[in-house]
Amino acid sequence: AQSVTQLGSHVSVSEGALVLLRCNYSSSVPPYLFWYVQYPNQGLQLLLKYTTGATLVKGINGFEAEFKKSETSFHLTKPSAHMSDAAEYFCAVSSDSWGKLQFGAGTQVVVTP
Amino acid sequence: ETGVTQTPRHLVMGMTNKKSLKCEQHLGHNAMYWYKQSAKKPLELMFVYNFKEQTENNSVPSRFSPECPNSSHLFLHLHTLQPEDSALYLCASSQDPSSGNWYFGPGTRLTVL
Predict the structure, then answer these.
(1) Distance of alpha carbon A97 from its chain centroid, rounded?
(2) Angle B35-B112-A102 (CA atoms, 0-180°, nearest 5)?
(3) Strands A107-112, A10-14: parallel, antiparallel or unpaired by DSSP?
(4) B105: chain A residues, CB-CB within 8 Å
(5) Is B85 helix (H, G, I), strand (E, B) or coil?
(6) Could you give the dihedral angle defined by the CA atoms of residues A85, B40, B6 and B105, in that order, rounded to the nearest 10 degrees?
(7) Closest-CA distance of chain A to residue B101, Å
(8) Distance, in angstroms, between A8 CA and closest chain B CA?
(9) Of the N and C termini of chain A, which has fewer Cβ atoms inside 10 Å?
(10) Strand B102-104 to strand A107-112: parallel, antiparallel, or no bridges (unpaired)?
């Protein structure tokens, strides 16, 4: 069984400030972990993923995430928020052979000037 | 543009109507998925097809009927839906699910009156 918990359904951040979105997972086997972004009226776009290897993963648009097995976490960060980062962000986990994705509930990010 | 297209983008239907959602990918992927995205709820996996065979039905009501005639096309046939079925329906595809490379379409926004 696998599950994902995203802490905070809404996050407000000032332009230029740090963006931190929290994700914790549970999985009975080593997981694959993902962050997706969804802009209004669009589908999901992959930001970054962790499968194996380096635990600090860099993605598109300046985002990165660190896999911490001891904390079962995969938090997403960006050093400096931009107005274009306003969107909904989803953490997801996959740990079975068919690769089915289990999503968190999502975090809506609002960026204020 | 991710290579996964969905039509129509918006659909309004009555509870007695029959309609179909279409998903198409020409990425050479062998796995295709239907997800349901409702307000305030995590994305729900509905169906999984691998090599045109349905490998997952996540307890979806029979008023939703998927069809995968070939590895490039996936349909979701809708019949006598309920207002609570109003949601964004997302299609995704992947070549190798274990690699984590899913590609999502833009979704069909369905409203059931």
Answers:
(1) 22
(2) 15
(3) parallel
(4) 43
(5) helix
(6) 40
(7) 8
(8) 12
(9) C
(10) unpaired
Chain A, nearest residue to B38 by Cα = A105
Give the chain A residue whose CA is nearest to the CA of B98. Answer: A99
Best of B29, B41, B43 to mutate (most A CBs within 10 Å, chain A):
B43
> How high is the mean pLDDT of chain A?
90
Q: What is the pLDDT of residues A57-93, one digit of tens each?
A: 999 999 999 999 999 999 999 999 999 999 999 999 8
For the record, the structure tokens of A21 come out as 């979105």
Smallest CA–CA distance from A45 into chain B, residue: B104
Tell me if B94 and A98 make a contact (CB, 8 A cut-off): no
Cα dihedral B46/A95/B107/A41 (nearest 10): 130
Task: Report yes or no: B42 at the A interface, CB cutoff 8 Å.
Answer: yes
Question: Would the pLDDT of B58 be above 80?
Answer: no
For residue B37, how many C-alpha atoms fall within 13 Å in the half-sphere facing its CB? 24
The tens digit of pLDDT for each residue in A2-16 reads 789 999 999 999 999
| One-letter-per-residue 3-state SS of chain A | CEEEEEECCEEEEECCCCEEEEEEEEECCCCEEEEEEECCCCCEEEEEEECCCCCEEECHHHCEEEEEHHHCEEEEEECCCCHHHCEEEEEEEECCCCCCCEECCCEEEEEEC
Question: How big is chain A, counted in residues?
Answer: 113
